[in-house]
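Hi team,

As requested, here is the filled-out complex form for the zinc ion run. I kept the field names the same as last time so the parser does not choke. Let me know if anything looks off before we queue the next batch.

— J.
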Amino acid sequence: MMLRAFLSLVVAAQALCGCASPRATWVREGFKTSCPARPAFAEAASANAAGLDDLVWSPWGTEETGWRVYAPAVAAEIRTRCGPESQAFAATLARWQARRALAADGRMSAAAFERMKTGWQARRSFVALRAQGVCPDPPAELMHVGEDEPLMAKDVLVTPPTLKALRALRTRAARELKLKPGDPTLAVFSAFRSPDYDAERCAREQNCNGVVRALCSAHRTGAALDLTLGAAPGYEVDSSAGPNRLHQTQTPAYRWLVAHARRYGFANYVFEPWHWEWGPAS
Ligand SMILES: [Zn+2]
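And here is what came back:
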């Protein structure tokens, strides 16, 4: 109760002075470039900096290079706004590792990422169902999102609670990201997809996303949304190519989602910056 009252005072003071919260500044401007030196983590910071663009690893089963694409999600996880190459970032990562009985070296390793990934995936109720061998039936009720709603690229179908959460999220995101009318940022470009449609598309395009889409896609639940985050030149909004995902995760809109979407019940499939699933609060 005391903490809540204190936080309310902080928010009120920020509103009075017109200053942005550290989180809002991070969303708008990205990582802080001046953070306190932590010489004990100088080597870890150097290793992290080199790995940002050079680490060769397979965090989702296929080989990737660099971890810069995941830096915003990692920073939100360990709770820092200092740049991923900084000593302060390494020191914060070490504290996060220590709390989980991992080697507290401050290095962004595949093992540390795997631990984060476990937590991120656990927030997706669809993943939990799939782990039990369950493929959920399509929902009994779906609602159309109006084509005239702001930020909506086209008519889509979602479950009623997903629509309620989406509207609340988009209202605040539009205000804080200062999106102009007609700006496609965070428009939903795909939501409910029937199992039949996915199977047909899989066969037609010979692109089954490792047959996941054909067998049991999260989009059959009506609670999975693909949100527009733009695209790197030459790529589609849902291209999982490295340069495209990197482009998307460096945007203020993605940082906003990472910072706020969980409050509205949305969890990210971190491999796909655009894919967010609504579920009961975790
Ligand atoms: Zn999706």
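Two things worth flagging: The radius of gyration is 20 Å. Residues 190, 219, 224, 226, 275 surround zinc ion (CB under 6 Å).

Thanks,
J.
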